């Protein structure tokens, strides 16, 4: 392990790092796969990659472990996810603060493959692929870019401070033409946490049932596990249709939208099988320091710990139970939202179908009971399909926001 920090002379850091970077970037297997997938001989400049998009006006809407996300301000714009990349050799052997916010090319390649496969579930079904689900973002394009961020992507000083991102954007960062994977996707709406406090209680049931159905289809079609479904990765997209419609083999499945379509984002940690190829990220290093006392962990960390026990270091294998662990987390958040903590008079919810309307206080009480029932169900089931079948059989769980099968 080579450790370089601010006490090391700046010129020595630059010289050593740049030499290694130029040596190993050409050998990186993940980078070769990305270039082949994007049909590129080499990475391209940001402006060249994005010249077909309107770049006037971007909002920085989020920072993840290895990425920044920007929203195009125009109506019905796009989301741009920028993933910071470095060769695997360097990330495993050199310690510099700035490198903590970068990821391997091979992990970014897996993320794009998984996101693209989920995107195709939005398309019309075929004889060979009888599945339809609109719960995952439509991916428009991917690019491998080099060089400094364009002005329209650079964070303001206030954003840098609030995001604690000085290690990413400061002048100390090494003078290389670092590469980024840019994923362009549809705008999937608002984070669930920004909507649920003022939503009608039936919206909350629709959210859970949409996730169960979407995961059931993705598990069946692609052996998919999300593995990181915290509340920031559950978005709600406005929906004018009364019902969300899915297809699983010859079954058409409908669930009331109540004005929102669930969109699940961020496949950074996800696992999937596409034909005979398995894509996954080894997450063993993330769980090395968890306490044995589960009560000391926050709910989100408890989910990671439970997931790691289910997987038991075999991150390549398929464990659909992990999706249910994360659905329990979503239910946990819904049960604690303000929409279920106070009573309101009035009736109705956005959209319709399946038991909307009625006294708000009665709806709140009923929804709490159903959410608690769904929460208990997650412990009993092994995958989303068994959970779905149990909901269909149990009138008490399917009376509100009723799932309909044709």
Distance between the termini: 59 Å
Oligomer: single chain
Helix/sheet category? alpha+beta
pLDDT below 50 for ≥5 consecutive residues: which ranges? 164-172, 344-348, 353-357
GO molecular function: ATP binding; histone H3T3 kinase activity
EC number: 2.7.11.1
Organism: Blomia tropicalis (Mite)
InterPro entries: GSG2_C, Kinase-like_dom_sf
Summarize the structure.
The chain has helices at residues 10-24, 29-37, 46-49, 88-93, 105-119, 157-162, 166-169, 201-222, 299-311, 321-335, 360-380, 384-393, 395-398; strands spanning 2-3, 44-45, 58-63, 67-72, 78-86, 94-95, 103-104, 131-132, 139-146, 179-186, 190-191, 234-238, 243-248, 251-256, 260-264, 272-274, 277-279, 404-405. The protein has 406 residues and is an alpha+beta fold. Strands 2, 3, 4, 5, 7, 9 and 10 form a seven-stranded mixed sheet that branches. Strands 8-13-14-18 form a four-stranded antiparallel sheet, with helices on one face.
Task: Note down, in words, how this protein is organized.
One of its GO terms (biological process) is mitotic cell cycle. It catalyses: L-threonyl-[protein] + ATP = O-phospho-L-threonyl-[protein] + ADP + H(+); L-seryl-[protein] + ATP = O-phospho-L-seryl-[protein] + ADP + H(+). It comes from Blomia tropicalis. Keywords: ATP-binding, Kinase, Nucleotide-binding, Serine/threonine-protein kinase, Transferase. This protein has 406 residues and is an alpha+beta fold. The chain has helices spanning 10-24, 29-37, 46-49, 88-93, 105-119, 157-162, 166-169, 201-222, 299-311, 321-335, 360-380, 384-393, 395-398, and strands at residues 2-3, 44-45, 58-63, 67-72, 78-86, 94-95, 103-104, 131-132, 139-146, 179-186, 190-191, 234-238, 243-248, 251-256, 260-264, 272-274, 277-279, 404-405. Helix 8 (201-222) packs parallel to helix 11 (360-380) and helix 8 packs across helix 12. The longest helix is centred in the middle third of the chain and has 22 residues, at 201-222. The model is unreliable at 164-172, 344-348 and 353-357 (pLDDT under 50).
């Amino acid at each position: 392990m080579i450790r370089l920090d601010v006490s090391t002379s700046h010129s020595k850091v630059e010289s050593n790092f740049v030499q290694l970077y130029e040596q190993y970037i050409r050998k990186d297997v993940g980078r070769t796969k990305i270039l082949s997938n994007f049909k590129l001989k080499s990475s391209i400049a940001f402006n060249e990659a994005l010249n077909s998009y309107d770049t006037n006006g971007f909002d920085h809407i989020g920072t993840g472990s290895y990425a920044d996300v920007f929203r195009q301000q125009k109506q019905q714009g796009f989301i741009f996810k920028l993933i910071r990349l470095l060769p695997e050799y360097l990330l495993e052997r050199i310690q510099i603060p700035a490198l903590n916010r970068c990821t391997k090319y091979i992990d970014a390649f897996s993320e794009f493959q998984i996101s693209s496969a989920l995107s195709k579930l939005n398309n019309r079904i075929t004889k060979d692929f009888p599945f339809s689900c609109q719960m995952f973002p439509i991916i428009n394009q991917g690019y491998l870019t080099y060089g400094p961020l364009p002005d329209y992507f650079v964070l303001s000083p206030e954003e840098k401070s609030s995001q604690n991102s000085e290690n990413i954007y400061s002048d100390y960062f090494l003078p290389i033409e670092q590469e980024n994977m840019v994923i362009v996707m549809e705008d999937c709406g608002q984070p669930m946490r920004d909507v649920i406090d003022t939503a009608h209680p039936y919206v909350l049931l629709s959210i859970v049932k949409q996730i169960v159905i979407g995961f059931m289809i993705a598990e069946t079609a692609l052996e998919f596990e999300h593995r990181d479904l915290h509340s920031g990765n559950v978005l709600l997209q406005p929906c004018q249709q009364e019902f969300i419609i899915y297809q699983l083999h010859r079954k058409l499945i409908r669930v009331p939208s109540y004005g929102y379509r669930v969109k699940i984002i961020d496949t950074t940690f996800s696992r999937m099988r596409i034909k005979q190829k398995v894509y996954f990220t080894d997450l063993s290093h993330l769980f090395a320091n968890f306490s044995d006392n589960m009560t000391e962990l926050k709910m989100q960390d408890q989910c990671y710990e439970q997931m790691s026990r289910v997987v038991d270091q075999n991150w390549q294998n398929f464990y659909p139970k992990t999706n249910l662990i994360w659905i329990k987390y979503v239910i946990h958040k819904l049960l604690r939202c303000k929409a279920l903590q106070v009573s309101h008079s009035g009736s109705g919810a956005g959209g319709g179908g399946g038991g909307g309307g009625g006294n708000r206080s009665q709806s709140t009480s009923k929804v709490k009971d159903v959410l608690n029932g769904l929460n208990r169900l997650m412990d009993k089931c092994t995958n989303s399909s068994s959970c779905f079948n149990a909901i269909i059989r149990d009138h008490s769980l399917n009376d509100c926001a009723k799932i309909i099968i044709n």
